[in-house]
């Protein structure tokens, strides 16, 4: 009888762990409208000079504590096309996850512009 009780306890514990795990995976896999995903570009080509650089310069490259001159954070300085293009994978990930920018936030349109520019090959335009 003690063995049956122990087996029932183990089974309940395993089912509880499984249920919690499934719940956590489902909760973590949801996306929000504030996190653009590939395909949200609506066919509109984004320009580095007109759409991306102004956002990077006003929200990211704002000092050595972020990604301005002298920065050692993450991909480092993001002051020009070459630096931003080289860091595009890290930038995309940080924007989608919401980790960046640390001091403030980007609008859905700003996020979408950067993500779409990256997803379309990050052209120097």
Layout of helices and strands:
Elements: H1 2-28, H2 48-59, H3 81-86, H4 88-97, H5 108-119
Helix pairs in contact: 2-5, 4-5
- How many strands, what sense, and barrel or not for the largest sheet? none
- Termini separation: 75 Å
Work out the radius of gyration.
22 Å
* Low-confidence parts: 18-36
**Beta-sheet strand percentage?**
under 5%
Q: How helical, in percent, are the residues?
A: 40-55%
General shape: extended
Q: Helical element count?
A: 5
Mean pLDDT across all amino acids: 78
Oligomer: single chain
Order of helix and strand elements from N to C terminus = HHHHH
Kindly state the number of beta strands: 0
Helix/strand class: mainly alpha
Can you give keywords for this protein?
125 residues, mainly alpha, 5 helices, 54% helix
What would you say this structure looks like, in words?
By secondary structure, this protein is mostly helical. Helix content is 54%, strand content 0%. It has five helices and no strands. The protein has helices spanning 2-28, 48-59, 81-86, 88-97, 108-119. Helix 2 packs across helix 5 (108-119) and helix 4 (88-97) runs antiparallel to helix 5 (108-119). The radius of gyration is 22 Å and the shape is extended.
Summarize, please.
This protein is mainly alpha-helical. The protein has helices at residues 2-28, 48-59, 81-86, 88-97, 108-119.
């Amino acid at each position: 009888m003690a063995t049956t009780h122990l087996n029932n306890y183990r089974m309940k514990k395993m089912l509880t762990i499984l249920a919690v795990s499934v719940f956590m995976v489902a909760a973590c896999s949801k996306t929000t409208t504030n996190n653009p995903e590939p395909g949200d570009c609506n066919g509109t080509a984004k320009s580095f000079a007109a759409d991306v650089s102004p956002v990077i310069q006003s929200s990211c490259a704002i000092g050595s504590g972020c990604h301005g001159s002298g920065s050692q954070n993450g991909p480092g300085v993001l002051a020009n096309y070459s630096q931003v293009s080289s860091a595009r994978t890290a930038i995309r990930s940080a924007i989608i996850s919401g980790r960046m920018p640390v001091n403030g936030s980007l609008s859905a349109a700003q996020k979408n512009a950067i993500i779409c520019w990256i997803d379309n090959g990050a052209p120097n335009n």
